[in-house]
Amino acid sequence: MSKHIGSCDVNEDNCYHVIIIGGGPAAVSAAIYCHRFDLKVLMIGEEFGGAIAKTYLVENYPGFFETSGYDLMEAFQKHYEFFKIPFIFDTVTELKQDAEHGFDIHTSGGLSYKACSVIIATGTKYKKMNVPGETELHGRGVSYCATCDGPFFRDKNIIVVGGSDSAAVEALFLSRFGKKVNIVYRREKIRAEPINITRVECNDKIEVINNTVIAKINGKEKVESVEFGDGTIFPADAVFIEIGSIPQSDIVKEIGTNLNEKGEIIVDKYAQTNIPGLFAAGDITDIREKQVITACGQAVSASYSVREFLTENFCLD
């Protein structure tokens, strides 16, 4: 295998055939496959596990029947650690192309790396409602993670904002703890998967309030109530917000990466972006299905594309 690739000598400690940015299922899958291709791999992420690790129930990943996202990612981590692939807990703040079409990467921790290719698997972050009280009461009744904070609201009145399948799943989980769980959704009916709609309808603790928006979250030291768009004050001890997500694609904008109107990275069927050597996988991309299994599959495509790119452009044997 050729050791000197472009401007990046992989014999140097801070130079890699491929750097994977992210820590979720797509990043882990890409790292394992690239390692098996005998590439020098580094993964950089703020945390290991990604958003799925905060999901209390995963029923659609083959081989894991009714597992939690945490347990699923724990299994991923064991698989990852078996190969002794390095992982850096840090935030990538800058991604640049160098003169030889490689990449320079800088982190908030003051570290710098060079890579012949990069796979972006940064996923998404929670979308906020941007209403009064949301920021002020975050951590004091306002939450974006039912798995993290649900147990703190045992026998309390809980609101879940949103109408997606994720919102329904969160409401079902929170019904284990709360005295009452109200799903507040701005449209006619929630858009969850049929099995979860049935579960919500059969749960005596859950009520759906349709055609309603929250205009304000009230409380001094903690959440006390919410104000609906029509001015109605509704008592609540906790508000769990599940209204979608925002792609974490800021780091690729500066180098001219094509994004769609949602801010997702546009890729072809091989996970290639419009930038040579830059690939992307998982929820950060414009793939329609935002699922663990599709993220993993797309990461495999990205890994094969990395190997092909290095072979064709940098004389990789």
TrEMBL record:
InterPro entries: FAD/NAD-bd_sf, FAD/NAD-binding_dom, Ferredoxin-NADP_redctase_2. GO terms for molecular function: oxidoreductase activity. The keyword Flavoprotein applies. Pfam families: Pyr_redox_2 (PF07992). The keyword Oxidoreductase applies. Residues 16-299 form the FAD/NAD(P)-binding domain. Keywords: Flavoprotein, Oxidoreductase. This is NAD(P)/FAD-dependent oxidoreductase.
